[in-house]
Amino acid sequence: MNVQEISSNPVKNILRFSVPSIIAMVLTSVITVTDGFFIGNYISADGLAAVNLGLPIVYLFLAAGLMVSVGGSALAGIAMGSGDAKRGCNVFNQTMLVTVVASVLVGAVSFVFFEPMLRFLRAEGNVFVFARDYFFIMLFEYPVMILNTSFGMFIRSDGRPDSYMKINILNVALNILLDYVFVRLGLGIRGIAFASLLSAVVAFVLNLLYFVRFSSMYKFGKFTLIMEDLRNMLLNGSSEFIGEMSGCISMFCFNFVIMKYFGVDGVTAFTVVGYTVYVFSMIAIGFGQGICPLVSFVFGSGERALAVKIRKITNVLLFGTGFVFALVLFLGAGGYASIFVREQNVRDMISFGIRLFCGTFLIGGYNVIGSMYFTSCGKAFPSALISSLRGLVLLLAATFTFPVWWGLTGLWLISPVVEALSACVTLYFCLGERRTVRG
Known about the structure:
- The model has no long low-confidence stretch (mean pLDDT 85).
- Helix content is 89%, strand content 0%.
- The protein has helices at residues 3-8, 10-42, 45-53, 55-81, 85-112, 114-120, 125-157, 161-184, 188-213, 227-236, 238-300, 304-331, 333-340, 344-376, 380-399, 402-438.
């Protein structure tokens, strides 16, 4: 990468880095949606509810792993942009070690308190059995998933987003194939989990091979544990930690409220509607992860105006994507619902919910890009504030009030309203950044 090349054609470079990242992230979401398809059609709606009730466990792993890997990749990118390749490589090795330690520790704690954790998440009866069978296996998959995500951030920073995309394509194809094979063999929800674990291990081996043989910027080797870099890594990645922990808390509260007012059918409907938001979030994160190395590099080179320009162009591209996404889902809500469930009452809940959720696709991407932009610039406070508002403070306030005030309609309005309010805060910080650049 060089600043002149990025400046001469920013759209081309944004797409060059973002499209492979988007494809990789969407393929990751395809795994989740495909799992939901097989669980909903070949196992039961209770299986879908079980997977959703256990999602806070996923967020625990993501909180620890992404705090380290996102913060570390941003620091490494800034170092490379300033011409300090030795420090950038040192940060890479330090980041990967700390990511391994964090993932293993969270996995060990989750393993020890596994069944009490499921009880706390309100998994009961048949739903508990499904959750236990699924997540016991996934406890081994999640650390591998975090390491793969961390590898992917550095592969993109290395200027080879296409390589990570190809690895993800293989991962998804293998996962879908194994889902089908294991379900047909009668392994049930355990087979779905085994498919995820085996495909993640294959992807891990390929990611590892990339850094052993092909990486031009980042190499495994001896490194110095620099406490200042560790502190900055954790501080800079704090917004991701807050965001994921907020997701953990919010998902628990969401499930608590839905179970209280709408029962297992409500959780199932929310799970299926959530797939649409999840896929769009992966597109937004793909754009964000795509521009992160660009922003870090040009920011480290002192080209702050170019960093702002990259953010603005990305917002325009993502808004257009969100508009198309919202239009297609609004018109095809009924058909979408029929893919996952057979019960008509649940289908009706899903169709109704999707149409109210559509506002999320127009606004949510702006907040994602804003938060990741500030992380890429090493500015932890605005990034953390945006993440905590949209993922915890405003979300919890809406979760415990909207369903009480407006019933099922209130449930589906939570996300678009929270994103709209959070966007006001994101806009405030972005305007402040623009004034600083001009000054």
